[in-house]
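Side project, low priority. Logging it here so it doesn't get lost.
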Amino acid sequence: MDRFLAVERILRGVQPHQLLDGLRSALEEHFAASAVDLLMADYSLTELRRVTVLPYTTDPVAMAGTPAGEAFTSQGATFEAVEEGIRAHLPVSVRGDRLGVLAVTLPEDQEPPVWAELGRFAEALAHEVFVADRDTDLYVQARRSSRLTLAAEMQWQLLPGRACARPEFAMGGQLEPAYAIYGDCFDWSASAHKLTVALINGMGEGASAALLTNLAVNALRNARRAGIPLDAQAELADQAIYAQHVGEQHVAALLLEFDLATGEIDAVDAGSPRLWRLRDGKTERVHFDEQLPLGTFEDTTYTLERLQALAGDRFVFVSDGVYDVTGPHGEPYGDHALARAVAATADLPAAHVPGAVLEELRDRREGGLATDDAMIVCLDWFGPNPSSGSASDIASAGLGTR
């Protein structure tokens, strides 16, 4: 039997919490592997942690300056000589979402095709871990360097992922402080012809802020999945929040819907997180007509605005927590510093940009604690995909989704 099929069959046959044990046994049998480890990226994306039966019992591997960290950040295999032979570090990612690294040690006398084959195993493992998270806490626990606050637990479970990639776009997002976030959140969903992005900033702190954000995100998802237009999605979410809190609490939001066939963007700015665009080397703030935050008044009406994405555009979304960071002399971060950071990270992939900007913010605080949670999402627009078909084209052809 083909070795890949044999290993894949083992991965699909074991229990969710036994994925690593099954893979380790298969690689020992078919490749004479002497060591197999799965390292998961922690929530702050600063270290990698081994998957073990007992969490928090092994030393983390730093993301910076290590072969495993380089494999994660570059999304390419790295190799190092060890006493037992050669240790390969292979990125474990699914549809652009980076989960961790598979570390495999083999005898020295291995041909390049073997490493390529192991890369396929790492990809297959990523898909299995993604599904296994529904049934076991093992891999979720491995992502944690410390206990999350209740609010952070609620927020991380709400996210769609930390990165996503398709031929038309690639994007990544990050929240900080990762283990004690409050009301900031992002959400996205892509269909055959649309990409919807929601950036949320709920008022308040702790679990109450997380509950408010959960209500907002799920109200938006409910409206989106009903197939209604973007402005109506905002209005239904507004009604849900107002019905619960009668104007005493509200949610700032920026909602965008990309047409994957044309690059046209519909937007609703409801007291929003801010949007920056990098186009042809020039960084500029994208201004909208700011409308009321969701839940402020009863039966608020929202209007759409439209802009056009061009191939090569980069969009960077930030919440107030980014602007609120002060330097050593009390000076705010501000538009100028953010524009400089967007330009300085122009050569990084979208998934790496949020972490790079947040690292700059940590340096700016000189190790001090954040006073507010911060959200950064980066989206690279590669260009429209005519084969996706616009929503209007699909509707006129009678091919709407069912």
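Brief comment: Residues 150-381 form a domain with the Phosphatase 2c; domain 1 fold (CATH 3.60.40.10).
Revisit when time allows.
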